[in-house]
Amino acid sequence: xxxxxxxxxxxxxxxxxxxxxxxxxxxxxxxxxxxxxxxxxxxxxxxxxxxxxxxxxxxxxxxxxxxxxxxxxxxxxxxxxxxxxxxxxxxxxxxxxxxxxxxxxxxxxxxxxxxxxxxxxxxxxxxxxxxxxxxxxxxxxxxxxxxxxxxxxxxxxxxxxxxxxxxxxxxxxxxxxxxxxxxxxxxxxxxxxxxxxxxxxxxxxxxxxxxxxxxxxxxxxxxxxxxxxxxxxxxxxx
Amino acid sequence: xxxxxxxxxxxxxxxxxxxxxxxxxxxxxxxxxxxxxxxxxxxxxxxxxxxxxxxxxxxxxxxxxxxxxxxxxxxxxxxxxxxxxxxxxxxxxxxxxxxxxxxxxxxxxxxxxxxxxxxxxxxxxxxxxxxxxxxxxxxxxxxxxxxxxxxxxxxxxxxxxxxxxxxxxxxxxxxxxxxxxxxxxxxxxxxxxxxxxxxxxxxxxxxxxxxxxxxxxxxxxxxxxxxxxxxxxxxxxx
Lengths: 238, 238
Fold this sequence. Notes:
homodimer, alpha/beta, Rossmann fold, DNA polymerase, domain 1, 2 domains, 44% helix, 11% strand
């Protein structure tokens, strides 16, 4: 594709930049020893993430007022702790566990890939995560954002159009000067709907081995397909 | 002071981090040669900056709807070009000149000072500049923000309280966990009014030699005074 008009790349974060599932499993195993609790952390991680779309839907349809992901994660966590019969955690421990989402680790190619494209484009997050979550995560994982953009600025969740149009406006650009990068089709469809360019990056391990849910077969209506961020950088010609 | 409760530092940008006056003079001299125009750039810079507070006041008192600094800068610039009898610039040239505010250079100690404090605190801009201006400037000047915070998020201008409270909320912190750093008393008073900590950094050359306007004599009601960002880092004990 002709990339000469593109000035900025905006990245989905959970699953696209960071490996939430293995990060939670690893931290969980560490806490298991430290706190003396026993959990199937892979299942726990999947259930935690599984509660995310329904919780955002409650905000989207007005059942809940605007609520940050930190708060939604905590609501889901409190419910999960009950369901897994994990009792006796202090408020401080629950808060610490909830903030595991601030401490997720990047996919192996992510930081180097971001550094490469950053030499040529404005590079920003565009995540449903709140600003403090994304800021702490960037510091933890060394993600070199030029700026942190979040659904929090429009108080709407992707794929609602306001999230994308607000980001484009904050960047001072036209929609077709900004390329959304994500491992999820619905996110790219949302960006496409407001006129942004789109790059699909495949993350087949996001939901664990053999459980890829968002790998596309054919139907190439996005501007660019990449196997990881290094491939993205090459396909962008930088 | 006891800095153990501070988690984030928010920085005023124009005058505190970057030397707007000499940056405009230097770029102006370059454009003078390239574009064949003749201007007293020191006077031009002072007048441009001088139009800034009155323009923000028009937004504050409702004469103008929310208008970004990029647009305010351009309104002032168009007026100044008239007053200086500079004619014949194309729209592209005017836009380029207006975006000199995206290309300002940091004070000599700024980048190293920010890097030092960034190892211990969240480090963010908190400027009346719009997000794209601050993002482009950070890239140009190598300012290592953990996140870009701007008056644009509250659509109010400092020292209105909403700018500070919105920043504190986006950082996910309490007001007294955030320290505002600025070379201007009115900015720190605004931060103080919402309960933030305050650090005054002296920038006696901001308005040109011998024209220091915001150097404080006595009245030490701020939490910390520093001569530059390296001194700030030392006074914060990091």
